[in-house]
Amino acid sequence: MSLRRLRLLAMVIFAVTSLGASARSQQREPQIRRALSAAPAGIAAHAAVAIRSKKGQWIVLRDGNNGWTCIPASDGDPDPLPACFDANGLAFIEAFGTGRPPDSSKPGYSYMLQGGSAWSNIDPFAEKLPAGAKDYIHIPPHIMILDAKIANESGLPLADVHPDTHRPFVMFGGTKYAILIIPIQ
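Above: the chain sequence. Below: its structure as tokens.
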């Protein structure tokens, strides 16, 4: 192959590779913006952004340096909205996703400034509406304390099927996955 053809081939390969990387970057930008909308600007500015692969592994779309990780959609929810977790909150979600008990000595925190949803306020593993339910749980913008001990000892009702989501409430009360949800609007 001549030097001229080799250079042309190299330029074509570089162009195709650059276009592929650019296209991936353009596809990721909306996911990154969506994920970061879950947190206050001061946290979002330095948070990592990640998505789950089909195999359940985290794929980092953007590195961060403040210990927070934002995701564009909360898996399994009826209306998947973005969420942002501190390291302990992310560990709580990981434990929940694998059925392990979360570390009860490390409370986790999360922002969901776009709101959230759940199939049930009682069953952490519900994947559809419970029998007789007319709608899923709609939650306005909120923060979460992901710690069963704090949630279960909060003094709030633990088995409220239809909580007033505009006031603090316990989701999945009485379970090892109980969380305290605090609306902020």
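Residues 3-36 form the longest helix (34 residues).
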